[in-house]
Amino acid sequence: MLVTGLGIQCFQQITGIDALVYYSPTIFRDAGITTESQLLAATVAVGFFKTAFIALAIVLIDRVGRKPLLYVSTIGMTVCLVILSAALFLLAHGLVSRGVGIAIAILTVCGDVAFFSVGIGPICWVVSSEIFPLRLRAQAAALGAVANRVTSGAVAMSFLSICRAISVAGAFSAFAAISALSVVFVHRFVPETSGKTLEQIESLFGGGGDGEDVDELELGDVEQLVHKG
């Protein structure tokens, strides 16, 4: 449970979403946008897509399920990050036109934010609130939140240094590789929790046996008391 809870919180951040949102003007400037009005418009578009797809996630999360949305989210983010890093690399070497580079950069940044917001963004908090037993839920969820914020700060504070070291395209290539790992993590470690009771969720992690024995014991005790009465 801790591997799942802490892992999904960390992957939510180390795929680079905060770097993408915080430094989107830097990314768009590197793609070739020069005027402040164009930078503002592109940044507003990122915020719009983030908000719109969070609202979509609210509608879909119980209808579609957690894991299918996580698959869509992590795979979509990986594809967007790969295309973004490739476009920035080609732009830096003059292999594509400025207009094409700008269009691809805006579409992939907005696409990455959209895929994040419809899946791993909100779902990591939902899953973290569902998988832990009640007696440990507060402590475990708090530990996950700490992991989330620490990784977020590490990514945000190191992004510009990484860009100077290996270029913006190189930084997003690294994020794309991490995002690809998040697909594997979701497949291997994150169960579907939609519509399941606490006992059923615990059994998904190999537990639940003790809880069933306790229930049977309590039922037997009640029957004995009834007969004695």
List keywords for this structure.
229 residues, mainly alpha, Growth Hormone, Chain: A, 10 helices, 85% helix, disordered C terminus, MFS_sugar_transport-like, Sugar/inositol_transpt
Question: Would you write up a description of this structure?
Answer:
By secondary structure, the chain is mostly helical. The chain folds into two domains: 2-195, Up-down Bundle (Growth Hormone, Chain: A); 196-229, no CATH class. The chain is built from ten helices and no strands. Helix 3 packs antiparallel against helix 6, helix 4 (36-64) packs antiparallel against helix 5 and helix 6 (98-118) packs parallel to helix 7 (120-130). It comes from Digitaria exilis. This is Major facilitator superfamily (MFS) profile domain-containing protein. Residues 1-194 form the Major facilitator superfamily (MFS) profile domain.
How many distinct helices? 10
- Name the overall outline: elongated
Q: Tell how many strands the DSSP assignment holds.
A: 0
What oligomerization state is this entry in? single chain
Note the run of SSEs as H and E.
HHHHHHHHHH
Q: Under CATH, the topology of the largest domain is which?
A: Growth Hormone, Chain: A
Label the structural class: mainly alpha
The CATH class of the largest domain: Mainly Alpha
Q: Low-confidence parts, pLDDT < 50 over ≥5 residues? A: 209-223, 225-229
Helical fraction: over 70%
Supply Rg.
22 Å
Distance between the termini: 43 Å
Transmembrane segments: 39-61, 68-96, 102-128, 166-186
GO molecular function, one term: transmembrane transporter activity
Organism: Digitaria exilis
Family: Belongs to the major facilitator superfamily. Sugar transporter (TC 2.A.1.1) family.
